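User: I'm designing a mutation panel for Two component transcriptional regulator, winged helix family and want to avoid disrupting the core. Could you give me a predicted structure to guide residue selection? Please restate the sequence first so the numbering is unambiguous.

Assistant: Good idea. Sequence first, for numbering, then the predicted structure tokens:
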Amino acid sequence: MRLLLVEDDEMIAETVLESMGREGYAIDWAQDGRAAELSLGNGVYDLVLLDLGLPRKDGIDLLDSYRKQGGLAPVIILTARDSVNDRIRGLDAGADDYLIKPFDLDELAARARALLRRRTGQKQPIYAHGELTLDPAAHEVRKNGIPMALVPREFALLQALIEEPARVFTRSELEDKLYGWGEEVGSNTIEVHVHSLRRKIGAEQIVTVRGVGYRLKRRE
């Protein structure tokens, strides 16, 4: 899951980036309304966390234009504007949820999960590949019907592979799936995640294509 945080307060942004990163999301950060507008134009985000008091373009105007252009990602407004009129304006502009600053990070994560469950439940199936099944909405992986405990980035890695099981993913493509802009990614980070995931689901489940990357094993 890739998130976009639109927030001009660096201290708040760093806290949210760290917290949501621990939840396993790849999260990008735009510091003003114009930068966010360009980012949203790429259409790659599953959820947007949006401040309202932004430089260069106000958050309400940004949200309104995003929805009018067909943007479908759920949006959680994060703002110090706590009047009823402000909330109504935000919801009418297309927001799905509204959190007043200062907010609890665990509550933000829970609200994000709820919106993503609703969204993935509408558009994504339960993926099945051989012995493995992955349910994005429930955030659950099973092997031969037995639930498996995966950390968030292991889950994200498996989801990327199982969504397109015949495709060979390069390391850089997997880094883009698992990490946001500016996050430090070690030279062997993806290899470490692959090794860890193999230990849990079976080494034979992930095939290394030498000089290219990784894919799931072919179904018999």
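For picking mutation sites, this is relevant: The radius of gyration is 19 Å. DSSP finds eight helices and twelve strands in the chain.
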